[in-house]
Amino acid sequence: MEKTSKKFCCKMMSSQFDKKCDIHDSIYDCPDVLLDVNKTKTEFRILIHDGGTSGIVIKYCPWCGKKIK
Ligand SMILES: [Zn+2]
Ligand SMILES: [Zn+2]
Questions:
Q1: How many whole angstroms separate alpha carbon 37 and alpha carbon 52?
Q2: Each residue of 24-40: pLDDT tens digit?
Q3: Is 69 part of a structural domain of the chain?
Q4: Which end of the chain has fewer CB atoms < 10 Å from its terminal CB, N or C?
Q5: Is residue 45 situated within a structural domain?
Q6: What are phi and psi of 56, to 5 degrees?
Q7: Which ligand ends up closest to the CA of 33?
Q8: 63 in a structural domain
């Protein structure tokens, strides 16, 4: 298994996907989760916590500004 943390541009980005919440089963219910990624890890989204799974696709990392491949 490949370590996912290596794929991320910065610590802030990888920490988003390292954290686990004990309270919420779904990341879409958890206000602490700011981003999600699709299965192929090519599309990152900023989540809109509106009770659904909506998000806005981002092309650049919101923390370090690097382009997301
Ligand atoms: Zn970054
Ligand atoms: Zn939570």
A1: 15
A2: 999 999 999 999 999 88
A3: no
A4: N
A5: yes
A6: -110, 125
A7: 2
A8: no
